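Archive maintenance. Older records in this collection stored only the sequence; we are now back-filling the structure field for every entry so that each record is complete. The fields below show one back-filled record exactly as it appears after the update. Entries are processed alphabetically, and Aminotransferase class III-fold pyridoxal phosphate-dependent enzyme is next in the queue.

ARCHIVE ENTRY
Title: Aminotransferase class III-fold pyridoxal phosphate-dependent enzyme
Organism field: Alteraurantiacibacter buctensis
Length field: 488
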Amino acid sequence: MLHFCREQQGHKRLPRNFVQRIAQPPPLVADRARRQKRRTARNKDRRVTQANDTPNDLAAFWMPFTDNAYFKAHPRMLVAAEGMHYTAADGHSVLDATGGLWCVNAGHCRPQIVEAIRQTAGRVDFAPTFQLGHPLAFEAASRLAMLMPQGLDKIFFTNSGSESVDTALKIALAYQKARGQAGRTRLIGRERAYHGVNFGGISVGGIVGNRRPYATLLPGVDHLRHTHDPARNAFSRGLPQHGAELADDLERLVALHGAETIAAVIVEPVAGSTGVLIPPVGYLQRLREICTKHDILLIFDEVITAFGRVGKATAAERFGVTPDLITMAKGLTNAAVPMGAVAVSRHVHDTIEGSGPDGIHLFHGYTYSGHPLASAAAIATLDLYVTEGLFEKAIELEDYWADAVHSLKGARHVIDCRNIGLIGGIELEPRPGAPTMRAMDVFRRAFDEGLLIRTTGDIIALSPPLILEKSHIDRIFGKLAEILAAVD
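Back-filled structure field:
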């Protein structure tokens, strides 16, 4: 916390009658006073009291994916968290219906995770993993590998979902080269996909707003059609019944470019940030079949879906489809310390590591890959998932959650509801000439009334911590129904 009182910094205040005693202050003092007056006027709208637990000045932080001007004129601050709730700066409690940003799967400030981080920070704050190692990283990798589909037991640690995606793409290209298929350089993403914000991720991603400002993207990238089909699948409960044939769009791209040019296909099993798009029945299975047929690697981006969000350790397990690589982050450490990972099939790993003479075979990595504090948080988090049966709890609550999501069918402005596991999407009709603004009004009003939701476009996305109870579900959807009835 910054303090602007000079006395608190060890400086004595000027006497109260200073102006009277010195009728004409020296020019330097006068200039200083004028500058201070201007600073005070400039900052008065941004300063808040120390008692509110909020920063003195909001100017320095350039906030991500935020209307910065609006926020800094109307700040909404979170200052504490525990279990299912945040505490706002004004003291009111906010029920977290989004798990932070899809990431706090085990609830906030869990003592087991906090203590693991604290103890590790006092023992080893950092240890490099280039040509050296520390035990926690190896333990975290082993524990994570045990949750992955059979054969995906090689773990590469990153620091975020964006880094995990770029890592997976590089591994795919390295694999093709190592096996003598260096011509396979093309990467296939999907329309409306979100794969993070690094250049690799936005290249294979399909959210136009994330791509348009940046002229330079990866070459040799193409995209499958997205699976959103409201005409046939609106208000589907669980997997939509129509659309498996959309996977055949990969055959079109194979015919267009040639299978011998394609290295990998990357998809989200459930597309989250684009608005909760659930895969049609049979779609992922068909995509796996086509990739296998043409010897193309299949990458599942499970940054959102891993760690219980769909009721299993991975969506691959839930849907019975095994890809060649899985990207992860978010729930891996319950978001307590940034960490991501890529689970790689043994075949892909061994092909790369077995290529050429001894030495480095994958020229890639990050300073913080397998960071001690992140590794400790991951181990403690994975323990919590098992000991508290949180994946199983998500399955147990899925039907009650689905009923609640679809209770909004017929609510004002609602044109679709979607669900899987403990994920929900409520799509709103956009305001004429003002897309996204209706959902944003719902978001702001919900926060002020004690509920944290997430919006993307005109879609409300919900992904609460897996520790929630039925009473929390009732409150989430009761409040949403009230707000939707009230907003224009």
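Update note: The mean pLDDT is 91. The chain has two domains: 76-106+389-486, 111-387.
Entry marked complete.
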